[in-house]
Design goal:
alpha/beta, eight-stranded mixed beta sheet
């Protein structure tokens, strides 16, 4: 299918949910999408879950519940269910702080820990407020990895089925409607060009669609090795003698690089065949002599520039 016919060739939605198996570089992709969006002039908020470290590993900024500006048009927020619940009570109950003693109590903490999905629903409620607020033109959610993402994103649907009326039902329904609306929300899945990652990504996308009902967007394949040699060139290199250990090592490195890139290309084809209705974008591996979060985000952002658009 030509790429122009696939969904997700350009990301223009206000809410961008980024998820994938742990270790695939999901947080780097989320940060790069948020930064590139900000560079387009869109006021963008990158949201990370509370279980992450307070200091963002790429921007080097301490993340808080209140959005913190880290660059022009770009802010970061660290969302947790307790803070979201407290903010909701302050907004809806008068006087606003009358129940703080209970909200900060151990009894409530034990209740929220024991209530399945409560923490996740509060976080999604805050995400809904941010994505529908005029303060930001786009919200990029660095969502949890596969298993927890399925649990979290499925909570609104479960809640509307279990609770048939009242404020909890209405709020969960609003959140679910936003997540299912392809014009407002897109779910970006991140994978590696490896057999296990491809299999888990296809399974994740199938479950997000069938079990959660989400609007699925593009697939981003991270850390792809660019093929530098043709098959004929590799064959010619194999016929070279080994006049020196250095030349021999160089030939071995070229052959290994060719083989790895060829295997990755096969996995990318498998992934595209499994989700042929959406666009697939490859991000080349970024090699640095030392870790530099800002440069890494910038380089990945440059690779993703063709797919991120101003918010619709």
């Amino acid at each position: 299918m030509p790429e122009r016919a696939r969904r997700g060739a350009r990301i223009a939605q206000r809410l961008v949910v980024v998820t994938g198996k742990g270790g695939v570089g999901k947080s780097t992709i989320a940060a790069a999408l948020a930064q590139r969006s900000a560079q387009l002039g869109v006021r963008t908020l990158l949201v990370v879950p509370a279980e992450r470290d307070e200091r963002h590993p790429l921007f080097g900024t301490t993340t808080r519940y209140a959005p913190t500006e880290v660059a022009a048009n770009l802010s970061i927020s660290r969302v947790d269910g307790h803070s979201a619940l407290k903010e909701y009570v302050h907004r809806t109950v008068w006087p606003p702080r009358i129940y703080d003693w209970f909200l900060d109590s151990r009894a409530l903490a034990h209740f929220t820990e024991a209530a399945p999905g409560f923490e996740e629903l509060m976080c999604l409620g805050k995400l809904y407020d941010l994505a529908t607020s005029p303060t930001f033109g786009r919200v990029v959610f660095d969502a949890p990895s596969t298993g927890h993402a399925l649990l979290m994103l499925g909570v609104p649907r479960v809640t509307t089925s279990a609770v048939r009326a009242g404020a909890l039902h209405r709020n969960a329904q609003k959140i679910q409607s936003m997540l299912e609306d392809e014009a407002r929300t897109t779910v970006v899945t991140v994978a590696l060009a490896e057999e296990m990652s491809v299999r888990e990504t296809l399974e994740l996308r199938e479950r997000l669609h069938t079990e959660v009902g989400l609007a699925l967007g593009p697939v981003i394949v991270n850390r792809v090795r660019t093929q530098l040699f043709s098959a004929d060139e590799i064959e010619a290199l194999g016929r070279i003698g080994a006049p020196s250990p250095t030349l021999c090592a160089m030939v071995d490195a070229a052959q290994a690089r060719y083989a790895l890139a060829a295997v990755q290309a096969t996995h990318v084809e498998t992934l595209q065949a499994g989700c042929d209705d959406v666009a697939l974008h490859a991000v080349s591996e970024v090699v640095r002599d030392r870790f530099d979060g800002a440069r890494l985000v910038g380089a990945v952002g440059d690779a993703l520039a063709p797919i991120i658009a101003a918010a619709s």
